[in-house]
Amino acid sequence: MKVFLTHSYFYRYDPKQWNNRTPYPPLATITALSVLRKERFETDFYDVALDPSPERCIAQFTAVRPAVLVIYEDGFNYLTKMCLTNMRDACFAMMHAAKKLDITVVISGSDATDHFEEYHAEGADFILHGEGENTLCELLHALETKTDLSQIHGLSMQGENGIEKTAPRANMKDLDGIPLAAWDAIDIDAYRLLWMESKFPFTLNVATTRGCPFKCNWCAKPIYGNRYNSRTPEHVVEELKILRMEYGVEHFWMTDDIFGLKPGWVSRFNALIQEKDLKIKYKIQSRADLLVQDATMDELAASGLEEVWIGAESGSQKVLDAMDKGTTLEQIRNSTQLLQSKGVRVAYFLQFGYLGERKEDIQMTLRMLRENRPDDIGISVSYPLPGTGFYETVKAQMGAKSNWQDSDDLAMMFKGTYTSSYYRSLQRYVHHLFRLQSGWDRLLGRKSNVPLRYVWLLPYNLLQQLWLGIQLTWKK
Question: Helices 458-475 and 420-443, interaxial angle, to 10°?
Fold first, then answer.
């Protein structure tokens, strides 16, 4: 049975990400490709990430005429967890084209999991819920042999009496048993060329874990769940070595929600990096409360850690507690100071608009930026997604718009303290504030790793901050 595997994240459909020129290959999709190869399914693969529209992909599977089209989203990429409507529409376009050719359609992804009824209504024959690799293989074997589908866990399908959903699938624990991603299927040079137009060195994405054991009440985990399973350091270093030697990649983005949480993992990882003399740089995501141990920081820095993104979220302890974040402002400050003392850059994820946030809470967040001096920031507004406590709290307030169109949409989809227009202006204001203080840090010799453009743009950022500050006063 011939299978055609693709995904539906088009970077051009997300203008902010496309303009950044820092695209990542669909890691979960090419991991699924490796699994299908291992199971000896005849599989064609097409990467749509850099395409202008679904048309080329549709032309490819129209020519191939597979029995099954599998649209398998990259669950390791936080952008797919945002369930953007631009990508949903692209997925539907590919589904509709496949159904006209009488091709069976299988979908795996966060949005399809959250809105499986809508996907089935648009023509999806099967949707994989949770981790998809084993479910996909069992489904394809059953379709090939025409055997019973009801015993396949983690599946929904169109039945005679409507949508039928099978029992949930248990999470995989032995991640080393999953073959390494099929990097040979990716046009690495096409990605590298785009990165060369950005401000950053070419970087590839690697996942060392699946899931997150913490329970922030706004964070959706539709694919890998509220658990934490890890590949061994040996397995991860093997992949890093292949990517370093075969593709010349030196920089990596570890896509894990939490990197190196398992006791002893970082120590062994660092030992292997030193043993194999593997010269790499990498960035991770982590939590402030996990980054206050000096010994662990030394090992991370020695292994090549270059940058940590911390979910700081807010400078108000009241807001952090309302989010069930489980971290304190003191931990955010101390972890920032410790990491920067080791030569590691620290970046903050910030979130405005959470329930109960007031002007004084916003001012506390601005004060945290001024006092802690992070090296980069990313800003969003609270975004309710199905499966979260936050969503359950605000869903009665939500109207027809329940998802963003692209990652820079920033629409408030529930009744917050301020309007969408206010938060969009606030996002720009905070970015200009950050660039302004970074420029002064470089000019006054406080930080040598700040790009010189922030110094040259000091007058511009000052004027923009003042103008946006006036707008925020009007929009209150």
Answer: 150
User: With DSSP H G I counted as helix, E B as strand and the rest as coil, what are the percentages for the chain, rounded to 5?
Assistant: 45, 15, 40
Element (H, E) at 169: none
CA 394, chain centre distance (Å): 23
80's tokens: 């797919």
Phi, psi of 378 (to 5 degrees): -130, 135
Interatomic CA distance for residues 406 and 87, integer angstroms: 8
Angstrom distance (rounded) from CA 146 to CA 206? 36
Position 184 in a domain = no
Overall number of domains in the chain: 2
- How many residues are recorded in the chain? 476
Question: Is residue 153 domain-shared with residue 246, that is, in the same domain?
Answer: no
Burial per residue of 60-75, b for 16 or more beta-carbon CB atoms within 10 angstroms, e otherwise: bbeeeebebbbbbbbb
Tens of pLDDT along the chain (476 residues) come to: 999 999 999 999 999 999 999 999 999 999 999 999 999 999 999 999 999 999 999 999 999 999 999 999 999 998 888 889 999 999 999 999 999 999 999 999 999 999 999 999 999 999 999 999 999 999 999 999 999 999 999 999 988 889 999 999 999 999 999 999 999 999 999 999 999 999 999 999 999 999 999 999 999 999 999 999 999 999 999 999 999 999 999 999 999 999 999 999 999 999 999 999 999 999 999 999 998 877 789 999 999 999 999 999 999 999 999 999 999 999 999 999 999 999 999 999 999 999 999 999 999 999 999 999 999 999 999 999 899 999 999 999 988 788 899 889 999 999 989 999 999 999 999 999 999 999 999 999 999 999 999 999 999 999 999 999 999 988 76
Contact partners, residue 30, CB within 8 Å, separation at least 6: 45, 181, 182, 183, 185, 186
Round to whole Å and give the CA distance between 476 and 472. Answer: 6
Beta-carbon contacts of residue 461 (< 8 Å; ≥ 6 apart): 432, 433, 435, 436, 439, 454
Residue 218: CATH number of its domain: 3.20.20.70
Burial code (b: 16+ CB inside 10 Å, e: under 16) for 208-236 equals bbbbbebebbbbbbbbbbeebbbbbbeeb
Domain that holds residue 380: 201-417
CATH number at residue 39: 3.40.50.2300
pTM above 0.90, yes or no: yes
